[in-house]
Description:
Blueprint: E1 2-9, E2 15-21, E3 31-36, E4 38-48, E5 60-66, E6 71-72, H1 74-89, H2 95-108, E7 110-111, H3 117-132, H4 142-159, H5 179-196, H6 206-222, H7 229-232
Parallel strand pairs: 2-5, 6-7
Antiparallel strand pairs: 1-2, 1-4, 3-4, 3-5
Helix pairs in contact: 1-2, 2-3, 3-4, 5-6
Amino acid sequence: MYCYVIWGKDKHGHTKKYLCKYNGDLEPGDVIWILDNRIYTALVREVLDELPIDSDSLKIQNIFCKNPEGTFPAKFAKSFFLALVDEYKDGEITKEKLTQIMEHFLVAIDSDLKSNSVLEEILCKKLPDASLQFKDESVEDKELAFGKELKDMEFRLKYGYSFWDTPKDHKEDPVEYTDEYLKIELELERLIRKQIGENEEERLGFCHLYWGTKKKILKEQFGIEWQSPAELNPDINFD
């Protein structure tokens, strides 16, 4: 059996994703150990019956342990959730799959969530509640509602504050908090990444390249006027 597993970030800030082989049964949400000079703990994102067509260029790792016994540190639960959010934003998984994977993960592993009350609230309450909105007929734009909730969860875990709390250290364009902008944000980010390329993110001054590209795409393709942090905060030196 083959599967894609995910964990953490690579040097470009994207989710680490590997193709693995395992002589046994696996389900999305299982936790596995990979031995490659050192032990890596990863989450099964997708199970495959056969190798993907483009697998020739990929290194196939061997899984040597499924769902390690014992309490699982909460930091891994946080890392896996944020990695799944990235996969959802990149269009690799659906919102339903994201929720299913996390639900299976929480059942399969005795995570130490009590050590992180925010993480426990997000994984055990906010994420299930956000998923249930798709069955709520009173919610008109279910995709937008889920996207807002997911963005807030991500901000709380990454930065320690809600997305809806305006940053105190610099100004941001308020258009980024409107439904008009949030509806197209995922498409926008994919267009920016496609135009800039994957290997520019380590370059000094990357933020200005990113903002310039974002401003151009927003105006030309979506008819949205947007000001960058550099334009709104001329007294701050961004690099």
